[in-house]
Each structure stands twice: as structure tokens, then as C-alpha cells.
Design brief:
Elements: E1 5-7, H1 8-14, H2 19-28, E2 41-43, H3 47-61, H4 68-77
Antiparallel strand pairs: 1-2
Length: 78
């Protein structure tokens, strides 16, 4: 069976959150640092992936880090 990976940028973009805001939230949550210009890559289903999803959901619920496109969709739905 092939192991699948995802990146922070992909996780954020999939739900309309800015990858930069997600990265900042991960750093605030004390996730291990990564090399400059290198995206976090995690194994889907791993404990690290689950923890990142938790940070992402928290960011989304707080309405922080939404991309301009997502903010526009929220306004039109209201």
C-alpha cells in the first residue's frame, strides 16, 4: 500500500485558508520548525496530520486566515 502525504499549503487551500496564516498558526502552536522555503509535508492519518488539522479547524472557526475568495463567499451567503 502506498503512503500518501499532504502539505500545509494544500491543507489550507482545500478549505479556503491562507497557507501563510496556517503556517503562522502552526508556528504559534509550537510545531517543529522547518527549513526556509520548504513546506511542511505530513503523512495523511499520522498524529502530526491530526494535530495540524486541529490547528486548521481552530483557525477556520475563529474566521482568521481566510483567503480573500473565502471572505467573499461568506459575505454573499449572509
Amino acid at each position: 500500500m502506498r503512503v500518501k502525504y499532504t502539505t500545509v499549503a494544500t491543507m489550507a487551500q482545500d478549505i479556503g485558508v491562507s497557507p501563510n496564516a496556517f503556517g503562522a498558526a502552526l508556528r504559534s502552536a509550537k510545531f517543529p520548525p522547518r527549513k526556509v522555503k520548504q513546506d511542511w509535508e505530513v503523512k495523511i492519518g499520522s498524529e502530526e496530520h491530526s494535530a495540524m488539522r486541529t490547528v486548521l479547524v481552530t483557525l477556520l472557526r475563529q474566521g482568521r486566515g481566510l483567503s480573500a475568495e473565502s471572505r467573499g463567499q461568506q459575505r454573499s451567503a449572509a
